Amino acid sequence: MHKSYRMAIVNYKNVDIHIDSKIILENVSFELQEGEFAYIVGAVGSGKSTLLKTIYGEVDIVDGTASVFDEYDLRNLRSSRLQALRKRIGIVFQDFQLLTDRNINDNLDFVLCSTGWKNRQEREKRIREVLHLVGLPQKGYKMPHELSGGEQQRIVIARAILNRPALILADEPTGNLDAETGNYIMRLLHRICHEEKSAVLMITHNEQWLTLYPGTEYCCADGHMRLMKSMRETATQTSLFEE
Fold first, then answer.
1. Mapping DSSP to helix (H, G, I), strand (E, B) and coil, where does residue 23 land?
2. What is the β-pairing status of strands 216-221 and 224-229?
3. Tell me: the pLDDT tens digits for 102-112?
4. DSSP tag of 240
5. Other residues' Cβ atoms within 10 Å of the Cβ of residue 11
6. Rounded to two decimals, what is the model's pTM?
7. What domains sit in the chain, N to C, each tagged with a CATH number?
8. Pairing mode of beta strands 89-93, 72-73
9. If residue 82 lies in a helix (H) or strand (E), which one and from where to where?
């Protein structure tokens, strides 16, 4: 069967990750391809979140080679290039970090303005699109505190995909949610991966997701990151997307 080439969104080879001269993870080698959904599991303190921070340039890489989108060398990244890189990455955390003093539309518009969208009508159109995608088309005028936890997390995902990122980094995005809402968030992330061809790299402690929403699996333990299960062919079962 013919296999189409997929671009390497993230490519790490023999990377050592340090915090204050202490090695957190050593000899990390992995590749995340376009349209691939991958999990990182492991105990608290095993280096999962620190690894994600290296990908968007919050933690420096000193040893090894690491690139994102085949064009950003994470070991030699000037600050101007760092901002360009971050515009192409969507980030979803379990603590929502929405701006509490403005409504949802203004939260999203703030991101678009700060990433170079000049035309107000285009910004409004994109905001409508992402709110529709996450199933909250009528919530734009609500304040964050007026939304449930699950709705706030859906807004965070809407915010993360505003610039149509090729890569989404998700750190325990369902950690504070009930099972039903967590399922909705997982379906949504897989839908974005499937339809938009965004690569998704997600940290989770919920082993149920690994079975319900299959993906490539890595485990951080004892200072190393190991591949546990590969799913390079990322055509996801259509049953995930049935309503």
1. strand
2. antiparallel
3. 999 999 999 99
4. G
5. 19
6. 0.89
7. 1-88+165-243 (3.40.50.300), 100-164 (no CATH)
8. unpaired
9. helix 79-87
